[in-house]
Structures are given as C-alpha cells and as structure tokens.
Amino acid sequence: MARSSPVLARLARQAKIPERLAWIFPVIVDSAILGSTIAIVFLSKLKTSIWDKGFYIALAGSVVAISILGNAYHAFHAAVAAHTQIAAGEKSDTYPSNPRSRPSSQSSLPYSSWYSRTASES
C-alpha cells in the first residue's frame, strides 16, 4: 500500500484531478479495499446469503482491479520512458531490477539494494 499510494495520486493528477485533491484518490481506493474486506470477513461469520455479501465482494473486486490496473499502467509507462531515455543516451531516474538476480545476502529487505543505490547517487 505504501508504494501504491504515490502512484495512484500521480494517476489522479494525470486524470486532471486538481493537485490539492489528488491525495484523496489513493485514500478512497485503499479505504474501500479495507472496508469491503472487513465487511466480507464480518458477513462470513453471520448466516447470510451470498446476495447479501455480493455488494462487498463486487466492491472489493472493483477497487482491487482499479489499484492493480493503475499500478500496472504506471509501471508500463515508466518502463517505456526509461527505455526511451536510456536509448537516447540520457540518464534515467528509473532503474528496473533484474528479475533473475538474487537478493544480496547482506540485506534484510528485498529493496534495500535499490534504496542504497539511489541514495548514493543523490
């Protein structure tokens, strides 16, 4: 959720939502995911029909799809922009990771090498 929120806010700005309101889009999406998940779990403990749970299941599926598709859209366009910059010989702000590389044995977090690399370049 932490890395998804800035991406969703950036997508809101791209959708012409004013800068002062762009922060609310990830809050709405993430809150809807949390709320619908809690409702599904709560309703699963009660003896209710699937139709009673249907709204929350549909809500959860919709907002999760919005979050996944928004992040995928952003990742694709960031990769295309990075590829274009690198092909033009420019320095890119985005450094894609190699999916076949193994995590460093010195790091406890999978992204710690990325954070240390970007921090040392700043």
Structural description of this entry:
The protein has helices at residues 4-14, 24-45, 50-87, 112-121. The protein starts with a helix and ends with a helix. The chain is mainly α and 122 residues long. Helices cover 66% and strands 0% of the residues.
Structure in a nutshell:
The protein is an all-alpha fold and 122 residues long. Helices cover 66% and strands 0% of the residues.
List the helices and strands and how they pair.
Layout: H1 4-14, H2 24-45, H3 50-87, H4 112-121
Helix pairs in contact: 1-2, 1-3, 2-3
Largest sheet: none
Q: From the structure provided, what is the oligomeric state, counting identical versus distinct chains?
A: single chain
State the order of secondary-structure elements, H for helix, E for strand. Answer: HHHH
Q: Give the helix level as a range of percent.
A: 55-70%
The backbone outline, from C-alpha atoms, is elongated
Radius of gyration, in angstroms, nearest whole number: 19 Å
Number of contiguous helices: 4
**How many E-type strands?**
0
Distance between the termini: 25 Å
Low-confidence stretches: 105-122
Domains, number? 1
How much strand content do the residues show? under 5%
Structural class of the helix and strand makeup?
mainly alpha
Q: pLDDT average, as an integer?
A: 77
Key structural traits:
122 residues, elongated, single chain, mainly alpha
